[in-house]
Design brief:
444 residues, mainly beta, Immunoglobulin-like, eight-stranded antiparallel β-sheet
Amino acid sequence: MGVDFESVPQVVVDYRMKRPKQRTLFYRWWSALGSENGFLAGSYPDGITTVEGVPVEATVRVLLRSTDPAFDGLVVAETQSRPDGTWLVEGLNPNLRYDVVGRRPGFNDVIMTDITPSNPPRISDSRITAYVGLPLEHTLKTFGGVEPRVVTLKSGSFPEGVTFEAGTLSGAWPTGSVGEYPAVFTVTDSTGDSTDKTVVVELILLPLQIKSDYSVPESYLSDRAINPVTFAASGGEAPYTFSVTGVLPAGLAFDVNTGELTGTPTTGGTYSFSINVTDARGTAIGLPFDVEVVQPLEVLDTNLALNKSIDSNNTISYKNSSSSPVNGNINSSNYTSFGSGEAWLSVDLGAIYNINTIKVWFYWLDNRTYYDKRIQYSVDGATWVSVYDDTVDPVYNETSAGKEFVFDKDAARFVRVVTNGSTASGGNHVIEIEAYLNVSPMTD
């Protein structure tokens, strides 16, 4: 290939790949072409493919030279040279020797013999990504040549906060203008052989974001301390500055130094506000909230569960057409079934009330005891407070008097019972559920 193809009838020297069938032979062939560092190229060792000095495309084959007849002449690589006559075959074993054959239709083959692949030290990295405000630690990857290999900076610059030392780009706090920073590095091996490589360091500014460790609900209960919410910023460029706009519910406060929302809302109503953050570059974003502060209703000495809607995670069925767990009838024939196995039946009070008493009649005619029994209330139907739990409270038998559970006044919209069969059967049966805010609740 530094010799032109001659325009004479083609003399075909057809080196066809001899495919070894035994595993040991395959391994020996793969050692000639595989994960090696050597390469042959159009400028090494002799030149590009030409016709009368004009670059042309041609087929370039690389053949293994070996004293073993089973491998001598084996085609280990084939490529097409470019229109400018350049070509490249990589992954060759630099410890072996090869023949290179150039082939172009209508011309004689051109052969270069007994060639050793080039294996200079090289840098594999082409692009390194750095992020504003995030630590960078990247050691340039090198291969080829004879170890040890040393990388030095030849020219170029880096983002602010990024330095290069001992082959490693590092920076605890990259900053500056975003974009690409090309730099030329030189890698030199122990023999003094060296090559240059341009590596681009790209500085990226991540989008400014704000998030919280706990979600702000759509509503808060008046006179009940909220779960503190801490907001944090990411992306953009630190330092960050927090602020709040709009109107916070009375009793709540936002700490711009810690990003924490805390307090106890005191006044009912709907409030609109936004938690905002601004980064060092002046970029600002906000999280808007519409929060309702609910003042629980207070209705004294009235059964708040009477004739309200019920629900269950199991099938609900009735003893007779007049049966219901919220109709005020505590007769034993008034019972409602809610399936078998562990199950619950709940009452929606229709609004959030302050209550301090729940009274329940389960089926009582045979003085049975229900298993895994819990009496609970909830504001949202998701988080439940138990006023009775038979795993920690005394177990009792059912009677016609039912059972009254008294506790400190608290807000609730839902009341529910949970059972898992009884000493009499696997079914779950409740006769009546009542909920009150009593001035002077009776206790057993």
